[in-house]
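Archive entry. Fields below.
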Amino acid sequence: MSARNGTIGLFVATLAATTPALAQSVRGILKDSATREPVLGAVVTVTDSAGAFLARSVSDENGRFNVPRLTASRRLRVIRIGYRPYEGGLPAGESDSLDLSMAPIPSLLSAVAASSKRVCPGDKTDAGALDLWEQARAGLLAGVVAREAHSPRVRLRSFWRTFDPIRHRPLDDSLWIKDITADRSYVAARPAWAFADEGYMRESLGGDREYFAPDDNVLLDPSFVATHCLRTVAGDAAHPSQVGIGFEPVEAGRPDTLVEVTGVLWIDPAKPALSSLEFRYTNLEMYARNSGARSISACCRTGRR
Amino acid sequence: MIDRWTIHSVILAVDEEISPNGVKKRAPPRPSLSNVRLLAYQDVGGEVTFLDPGKTGLGETAVFTGIVVDTLGRRAPGIRVWIRDGKDTVVTAWDGTFRMPFSASGRYVVLASDSTLAMQGIARTVPKAVNIVDPKNTDVWLTLYPRSAVLALTCPPKVYKPGTGVAVAQVVDGQGAIVPRARVDVEARQAVVVGDTLYQPRRSSGIAGDDGRFVICNAALDQPMFIRATTGTKTGVAAIMEWKDDVQVLTIVVKAPQPP
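PREDICTED_STRUCTURE:
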């Protein structure tokens, strides 16, 4: 992991200097096909002829990207929230900068209006929610890749508070502060497959409980779509002019004690970028019916400065 | 990148259901459990702020900064803030903010109180644990509870009545060392006006703690109070002639009797 970061970091450093080392990379500029504006935050992936992953990076604020070129590099794939994915072959041999046009998706909102039906794993009928989910995945992936390339220096403040149940007065209040070079702000404590198999709450034999929340890697994982039904949600008073992807767990074939998550991943279609994730835990006691989580993602921050 | 997140959950106590013949029954699904009690709500979360790489703060003097507010959210000036087991205290500014230098990484418990109660180490805030991993500037938010809420906890359960006086005292010897487990006698003078003014004494006594400290609760604010501490042959006296505040802090020095 750190070795790969180092390699990508080196190429970014040499970009401004325009040295011969650039011959070792696939570079180019992404532009919006309609406005000719640069497209930032797109994930550019280089694969071999069979589609196996080789390297990836994310475009900067000028739409520039720079991915290491390996001997087997043959194909290029670009995904960006709000745009149709681009896929194409790489020109053989060393070439000048690639000029790629990204076609914007006319309106995420119209896609929502057209379909509000639930799409469950295995359904083939209505692709609206799945299309939107693919868009959201592209946005999440851009964040993950940007952090791989340029981990920002962040201050992490985490807290743990307990309140008495009647007057909501604090009983305990702890705060941790840590300055880190973050690969991410927030890490789910378990891998995606563990959530799919064992749920989002773990209870020890003594009754102690741990509640988990999915991070972006969990939402990106195919096992999340495989265990949740998706539907599109129109913006409400708390989320004006946003579109949401609702998710709820599939029940069939899973234990009745499994604690799952049901909620909405909200997208701002104007930017377009992910804005927040809100969910509730299912299958808990009556007292715990409002247990859940909310996380907010500041727009457009891809980790670059 | 996710910038802020909070997970809300509950802390529950589940009573075990055992049938009369001692067989533990299989619990029903959680949503239909009835033998559950709600102990507390808990919030776990965090947030990140992006740091400017040019200003990592290394080499700077690290400080706690923070703000003290009352239970209505108003900023509380003139409040003394300290770190548990630390020597230094700082007083909040007019806007309730404070700055306190500290030296090393570690776990600190930050407390705040008014100056009178702070002298006896009685905090009016929920102890706030702060873990400093890197010695960098740290923001702490403290909520100050009213005195009456804290005095009720300082006195024995269900003893404190609002509007009465509380004296917090410590017994020391002539060298300033703590005198544990001294016998304490208290006498309050109550004025009884029947033609002439008579004083009817109210007496009470008890034993100070191992740290030499004791507390007198439910004192009438309009009555003078005399306190005598005795340990072995040594005695010391103190008096509160006038209650200027509903909390009084006393130090009683015990001395051996002077030979005649």
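CURATOR_NOTE: The longest strand of chain B covers residues 36-50.
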